[in-house]
Design brief:
This protein has 13 helices and 8 strands. It is of the alpha/beta class.
Length: about 300
């Protein structure tokens, strides 16, 4: 059971990766991390004069933290959500030049159980969905009159899809970008254990499900964007690298096909690994986002 206990510990806080620099991270991540560092330096994103530090209270009382950056001329606002065991600036700072060129304010948040936000467990979208909706309500009030765009990577991508499919989504949210989302946490766990025998995978999933409920008080059953996308009624852009080894490209395709959004698009980036699409083809990524927003009527 030792390896299964380790699976449960995956839900615990670990900000090691968020604190890594391009000099201290693994070689395979160096270029990826450096891309964000360059943007942090150029736009002085760590200068307190450049952002407003904001906090809200989640539905379960957990304190959540984010940084709100304002554009010179606001056409809208982005809620940027990072992935599992990562950090807001580490992942989302790379998009700042794109946001600025589009004239968008942007709120880079720390997901629960990451960095400056509280929480006792990472729930793979279960409670994070409610957090996303709370941030949306905050932005709808703070940036009244501006359209809101959800933009998430990996677990953050799955989270924004879960929120986008919720009936309580504020009407000011007019688009969602999901970069490298998984179809469900169960599918993702199956993928991680694909080399194990089927009975072992079945046992591990049952243990994970029971442990999440007993130790942290939530059900993993609802961490399933593949169901949520059927209820999405706002424009949706899916981005996925065809060489994604962590979350298979097939998951992105399945989510796109199942999505019932009135306007949807899939950007497949040939040869890109997990969340590396913008690193591999930044110009194409930005052009796709710009076209998506224009065609979907986001700015109207």
């Amino acid at each position: 059971m030792k390896s299964m206990d380790q699976m449960l510990r995956m839900m615990e806080r670990d900000d090691t990766k968020a604190r890594q620099t391009s000099e201290s991270c693994e070689e395979r991540d160096r270029e990826y991390v450096r891309q964000s560092e360059i943007c942090m330096e150029e736009y002085e994103l760590n200068d307190p004069d450049q952002y407003e530090l904001v906090t809200i209270e989640a539905e379960d009382g957990v304190s959540l933290e984010g940084r709100l950056y304002r554009a010179d001329s606001s056409n809208g606002v982005v809620l940027a959500m990072h992935g599992y065991h990562s950090g807001g600036l580490r992942e989302m700072a790379r998009f700042v030049p794109m946001y600025r060129r589009l004239g968008l304010d942007f709120l880079i948040i720390s997901q629960r159980c990451h960095e400056g936000s509280g929480g006792t467990a990472i729930t793979f979208g279960v409670r994070e969905k409610g957090d996303c909706l709370s941030w949306c309500r905050f932005l709808a009030s703070r940036c009244e009159g501006l359209p809101i765009l959800l933009h998430g990577l990996s677990m953050g991508a799955s989270t924004v899809l879960l929120a986008a499919g919720d009936a309580s989504l504020p009407t000011s949210v007019r688009g969602v970008i999901a970069d490298s989302p998984y179809t469900s946490i169960y599918d993702q766990t199956e993928h991680f254990m694909r080399d194990r025998a089927k009975p072992i995978r079945k046992l591990a999933l049952a243990y994970l499900k029971r442990g999440a409920k007993r130790r942290y008080g939530f059900s993993l059953d609802t961490a399933a964007p593949i169901r949520a996308v059927r209820s999405i009624r706002i424009p949706a852009l899916f981005v996925h690298g065809t060489a994604d080894r962590l979350v298979p490209f097939a998951m992105g395709e399945a989510l796109y096909e199942a999505c019932r959004a009135p306007h949807k698009k899939l950007l497949a980036v040939e040869g890109a690994d997990h969340v590396r699409s913008y690193l591999r083809e930044p110009e194409r990524y930005e052009a796709c986002v710009s076209t998506f927003l224009e065609e979907s009527g986001f700015f109207q």
